[in-house]
Amino acid sequence: MVFASQFILLSSPHATAELVEELKKGREEPDASKAATLGIDIVDDYNVDRFNAQIKDFVAKLPGINSKNIFAVLNKAENLLDLMDLSEETLGDILGSKQNGSDLFNALHGTINVPEAEPKQDKKKVFKRFKSRK
Questions:
Q1: Cα-based distances in Å from 78 to 39, 83, 100
Q2: Residue of 44, 88, 53, 95 lying closest to 73 (CA atoms)
Q3: Same domain flag for 53 and 89
Q4: 94 and 67 belong to one structural domain
Q5: Distance between CA 70 and CA 61 in Å, rounded?
Q6: Does 70 share its domain with 22?
Q7: Residue 48 lies in a domain
Q8: Could you read off the pLDDT of 39-70 as tens digits, one per residue?
Q9: What is the number of helices (H) and of strands (E) in the chain?
């Protein structure tokens, strides 16, 4: 079964151009530089050697951070206070996803419920001595 759009695409280049124009109505023009960077993991010697490994490991464990956006965050913020000053929208732009930006923002600004520690019972340890073979 051949659909009408497939028929138009196969029938004439002019009709194909009209169909593409119809599909593009109401949408912004694509940005070639932005499209070229989508899905690229920018990991190079400059980024790897530039940051403290312990800080990089800490930031990598935060919600919303992954291997594709960690260097964007590390390049944008000089320290944790700079990262905390960023808005949720800005974090979403840096991380490439509104969901990732929201996850990181909520992790940095949310409240933490720490359970109360149970009181320790004072137990005296009973040490058993080994008997000598004398």
A1: 25, 8, 20
A2: 95
A3: yes
A4: yes
A5: 10
A6: no
A7: yes
A8: 555 555 555 567 788 888 999 999 999 988 99
A9: 9, 0
Output the pTM of the full model. 0.50
User: How many domains are there within the chain?
Assistant: 2
Helix (H) or strand (E) holding 79: none
How many Cβ atoms from other residues are within 10 Å of residue 55's Cβ? 12
Cβ atoms of 64 and 91 within 8 Å: the answer is yes
Which residues constitute the domain of residue 23? 4-28
For position 94, which CATH number holds?
1.10.150.20
C-alpha triplet 18, 6, 36: angle, nearest 5°: 65
CB atoms within 10 A of CB 71: 20
Look at residue 70 and tell me if it is in a domain: yes
CB neighbour burial string for 93-122, b if at least 16 within 10 angstroms, e if fewer: ebbebeebbbbbbeebeeeeeeeeeeeeee
Length of the chain: 134
Instruction: Quote the pLDDT of residue 8.
Output: 47
Q: What is the pLDDT of residues 108-130, one digit of tens each?
A: 998 878 888 777 666 666 666 66
- The mean pLDDT value for 82-107 works out to 92
